[in-house]
């Protein structure tokens, strides 16, 4: 269990990162703020507390890996990596610009710290499976983390991959579903109901943990628990709020893939700054 001071530090880091996310998407005039804001707390715990990674050695062999399967929320990952020193923060304001490092989806060939090029939804869990199986075959002990969207798990390939993860007993694979309940066309329940997520993965022989994806203690404890599991992959179903931290974006599917204008951006940033003072 993390100490109160550590958890408060992680929350502060995440809320500062939310400002960076809004600023980068505003500068780009395009992007996906809703899901970026819902997933940033998970990324903060992973990169600042749990994963064995280093910006000084971004390709070191024994590092943990992360596959952001829901690649459209790249601004959250980019912000995390920039703040960890993988590349200059100035790059964040060049998001989606022609010729810039940071494009709309993660590209492992151009961006330090990116372990998998993603964005075609449904494929990330298969990529993570390959990494986890390779590590086992090579006798390596690092962990593979994957982050899926809840709308994304409507894809059939996810369930083929889920069956594969369990079949090969990939206990070095720890996945999250960022369950904010919304996708581009509305609620998951209305578009294509994915519930109950936990029971589905349990039926595919995964170890499943359900948490509040904005509770830093629960995120931390779930990762610790997952690392103790033997013979099964773990799925952490993180119940989150789309647009978390910005009141007019929260639980609003309209902010799935729309950049705020300058006035909206200022309102959002002022609100977020109020949370870190």
Short description:
With 277 residues, the chain is an alpha/beta fold. It contains 9 helices and 7 strands.
Q: What is the CATH fold-level name? A: Rossmann fold
Biggest β-sheet description: 5 strands, parallel
**Which residues sit in consecutive blocks of at least 5 with pLDDT less than 50?**
none
Distance between the termini: 26 Å
The averaged pLDDT comes out at 97
Computed Rg:
17 Å
Instruction: Give the class-level CATH name.
Output: Alpha Beta
Helical run tally = 9
Whole-number tally of structural domains: 1
Name given to the CATH architecture: 3-Layer(aba) Sandwich
Q: What name goes with the CATH superfamily?
A: Thiamin diphosphate (ThDP)-binding fold, Pyr/PP domains
The helix/strand series, from N terminus to C terminus, equals HHEHHEHEEEHHEHEH
Fraction in beta strands: 5-15%
Helix percent band: 40-55%
Description:
The chain is α/β, with parallel strands linked by helices and 277 residues long. The chain has a single domain (4-275), classed as Thiamin diphosphate (ThDP)-binding fold, Pyr/PP domains (Rossmann fold, 3-Layer(aba) Sandwich). It is 43% helix and 12% strand. It has helices spanning 4-28, 33-50, 74-83, 124-137, 156-167, 188-192, 197-203, 216-228, 262-275; strands at residues 65-68, 144-149, 173-179, 182-183, 186-187, 207-212, 234-239. The strands form two sheets. The chain has a five-stranded parallel beta sheet, sandwiched between helices. It has a two-stranded antiparallel ribbon with strand order 4-5. Helix 8 (216-228) links the parallel strand 6 (207-212) and strand 7. Helix 1 (4-28) runs antiparallel to helix 2, helix 1 (4-28) crosses helix 3 (74-83) and helix 2 packs parallel to helix 3. The longest helix is centred in the N-terminal third of the chain and has 25 residues, at 4-28.
């Amino acid at each position: 269990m993390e100490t109160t001071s550590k958890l408060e530090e992680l929350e502060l880091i995440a809320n500062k990162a939310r400002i960076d996310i809004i600023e980068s998407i505003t500068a780009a005039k395009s992007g996906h703020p809703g899901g970026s804001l819902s997933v940033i707390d998970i990324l903060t715990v992973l990169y600042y507390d749990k994963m064995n990674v280093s910006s000084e050695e971004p390709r070191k062999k024994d590092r943990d890996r992360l596959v952001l399967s829901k690649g459209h929320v790249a601004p959250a990952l980019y912000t995390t990596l920039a703040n960890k020193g993988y590349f200059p923060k100035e790059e964040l304001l060049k998001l989606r610009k022609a010729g810039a490092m940071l494009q709309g989806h993660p590209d492992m060939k151009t961006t330090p710290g990116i372990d998998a090029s993603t964005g075609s939804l449904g494929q990330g869990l298969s990529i993570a499976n390959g990494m986890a199986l390779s590590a086992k075959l090579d006798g390596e002990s690092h962990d593979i983390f994957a982050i899926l969207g809840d709308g994304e798990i409507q894809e059939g390939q996810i369930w083929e991959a889920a069956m594969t993860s369990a079949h090969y007993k990939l206990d070095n694979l720890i996945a999250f579903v960022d369950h904010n309940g919304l996708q581009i066309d509305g609620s998951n329940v209305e578009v294509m109901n994915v519930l109950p997520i936990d029971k589905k993965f349990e039926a595919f022989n995964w170890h499943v943990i359900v948490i509040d994806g904005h509770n830093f203690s629960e995120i931390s404890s779930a990762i610790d628990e997952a690392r103790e599991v033997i013979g099964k992959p773990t799925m952490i179903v993180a119940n989150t709020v789309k647009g978390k931290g910005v009141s007019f974006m929260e639980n609003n599917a309209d902010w799935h893939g729309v950049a705020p204008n300058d006035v909206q951006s200022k309102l959002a940033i002022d609100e977020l700054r109020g949370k870190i003072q």
